[in-house]
Design brief:
With about 240 residues, the chain is mainly β. The protein has no helices and 24 strands.
């Protein structure tokens, strides 16, 4: 890791089963095997979220809630009690899930959808997303990367998009916070301004990383060996 770009702090080595994560204020929620856990990034301590056994296909947060996509649909989960409400039925061929405001956005069967957390009407915003390989919310907008390596800023209002950059064919993990998008591409970590595409390299050596989430003030990154790191990037 590059000491003069992003600083990495090892927190624990018990997350070998981690399959997804999402920022939750200054904490993160990690789906590990069949349970959800809220993790404090200050010291790596954690607690389970309820007793339900989940088998998530994707995970995000929105409006203070955890949102889980599994084989039965989308569920809104209270991060304190674990109580949950399923607010949509099954979704097929989902390639991206992101929370923004009081809704989640997902790409399924080549189209972008807006799904209100309160169970309101699902809205198909736009088609033409069949080549998407990465999708995230960052700095109040949405970002997608397609198979060709082109990165787009996507409007959460109508699904229209504008090209930001090219050359992201090796992008593997995306996560966004209130200021920036973070991308692990091949073995390198980058910070990207989702409004103009300006890119800042933050270091190399990330080839073994399999899960990433952006919390307030830091990233949480998990390696294939189950090691959880807190990653502090330079200020934007």
């Amino acid at each position: 890791m590059s000491d003069d770009e992003a600083s990495w702090h090892q927190l624990s080595e018990e997350w070998r089963g981690a399959i997804a994560a999402a920022g939750l204020g200054d904490r993160v929620v990690i789906a590990d095997d069949d349970r959800l856990h809220v993790v404090e990034l200050a010291d790596g301590s954690y607690r389970p979220v309820g007793e339900h056994h989940w088998h998530p296909r994707a995970l995000t947060t929105a409006a203070g809630a955890i949102v889980v996509l599994d084989s039965e649909g989308l569920s809104r989960v209270d991060p304190e009690t674990g109580a949950f409400t399923r607010f949509t039925d099954r979704w097929d061929d989902v390639v991206g899930l992101a929370g923004l405001g009081d809704a989640v956005y997902l790409i399924a069967v080549g189209s972008l959808y807006r799904v209100p957390l309160d169970g309101g009407e699902v809205e198909e915003l736009a088609s033409g997303y069949g080549g998407t390989i990465g999708f995230a919310a960052a700095a109040g907008t949405l970002v997608s990367i397609e198979r060709s390596g082109t990165m787009y800023r996507v409007s959460p209002d109508d699904g229209s998009y504008e090209q930001l950059d090219e050359g992201w064919t090796e992008a593997r993990l995306l996560a966004g916070d209130a200021d920036r998008l973070y991308v692990i591409a091949d073995d390198a970590l980058f910070a990207v301004d989702p409004h103009d595409g300006a890119c800042t390299p933050l270091g190399h050596g990330c080839g073994a990383m399999t899960v990433m989430a952006a919390a307030r003030g830091a990233l949480a990154v998990v390696s294939a060996q189950g090691t959880l790191f807190r990653v502090e990037a330079p200020a934007a």
